[in-house]
Amino acid sequence: MPIGLIGKKIGMTSLFNADGRSVACTVIQAGPCVVTQVKTEDTDGYRAVQMGFGERKEKNTPKPLQGHFKKSGTTPKRKLVEFRNMGVETETTYEVGQEVNVTDLFEEGQFVDVVGTSKGKGFQGVVKRYNFAGVGQATHGQHNRLRAPGSIGASSYPSRVFKGMRMAGRMGGNRVKVKNLRVEKIMPEANLIVVSGAIPGANNSTILIQR
Amino acid sequence: MRNQFIQMVEASNAEARKKFPEFRAGDTVNVRVRIKEGEKERIQQYQGVVIQRKNPNTNGESFTVRKVSNGVGVERIFPLLSPNIDGVDLVRRGKVRRARIYYLRGRMGKAARIKERRGNYASATK
Question: Are residues B81 and A16, on separate chains, in Cβ contact within 8 Å?
Answer without folding.
Answer: yes
